[in-house]
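Researcher: Please generate the 3D structure of the following complex. Treat every line as part of one assembly.
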Amino acid sequence: MAASSSLDELIEALRCLPGVGPKSAQRMAYHLLQRDRRGAERLAQSLSGALERLRHCARCNNFSEDEVCSRCLSSRRDVTQLCVVEMPIDLNSMEQTHAFQGLYYVLMGRLSPLDGIGPRELAFERLLNRATDGLVKEVILATNFTNEGEATAHYLSELLSARGLKVSRMARGLPVGGELEFSDAITVAQAFIERRDYS
Amino acid sequence: MSQKLRVDGQTAFLLHSYPYSETSLIADVFSRDYGRLPLLARGARRPKSALRGLLIGFQPLELGWFGAGEVKTLAKAEWLGGIPLLAGRCLLLGYYLNELLISLLAREDAHPILFDSYVSALQALAHGAEDAPELRKFEVRLLRELGYGLRLETDAQTGSDIDATRRYLYQVERGPVPQVGAGDTAIDASVTGKTLLDMRADDYSDPVTRRESRRIMRQLISHHLGGRPLQSRRVYMELQGM
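Model: Done. Output below.
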């Protein structure tokens, strides 16, 4: 009785993962218990370790074990540029480009008025404090090109420019190697509207 | 008994969407001929889904769906274009329109007139018209279309025509009644007859009309929402106040 209830609990717990429904949760639970008990132990330990030790970096708001994360402390990064992204995963995407040497700020969300997510929920004040440390000269807004991401970028740009910072927004348009024929109409339309001078 | 139906080629807008199961989402859409309804967009949250980036708010879409239950299944979606993407403050006003529709519109009630008014309001917002007229026109159309009896023609007490030069008190659920004596013109419900007539004629060129109509519409909408606060308004006010 007790065994089956902890099994049920494990299956139920695994369902909190994105993309995991009842069937896959069951499969995962049996796999961990039957075939990979050491893996299961490691998973359990690293999960509770992460929960215990990880917090938000005081400067970039990303997950960190220390008060300030190693990226924010690195002497190789350009402290005059601050890139604002919605989620930690967006930061990883930016880092993979090797195109940016500055620092980041992770909002951990986006403005979403219909879900009740506003500047208070996203702690806009924290970002404003971070960006006005006297070292940052330019803030690059790299929120997503969804309506929510655009709304977030718009309001941040107003708040940041009002504080004397240079504000830029990631460019939007056709992907590299993109062909008009195979691109979706809405992207082409917007790329056309936002066309730039060629001189 | 609802019948199994297949609908094609409907012009519609996405009002809001909610994640559903592992990779799908429920799209709350407002269509011209079938009103507001929830559609299950299968696989729309998969990284390579064709629907990703297409199911976007404030953009006219051509949708097709089928199904007999309350939640239909989205079968087809195409972007129609013709309305630029909303930007800046206008985006927040767009969310306000969507929240009004989500909060006040019953499901599967066709409102083509309201739909057309929504399109005009979005057009105006997309062209950067931040100001009240389009929102007021939409709010007036909304209350009238939903049968909330917005009374702008005659005085609710005597039934006589509204006199542009008089002041009225707009009473919720009743309509305008003449304001007695000098009265307090600062109270929310107090309006001039001219404001009421202007609202009926969709004429918001007068700043007094803009101010007074905003006040009474806010009061009426809040009443019809049963006092439930609008999230989009709260977020908007917070952002403006920063």
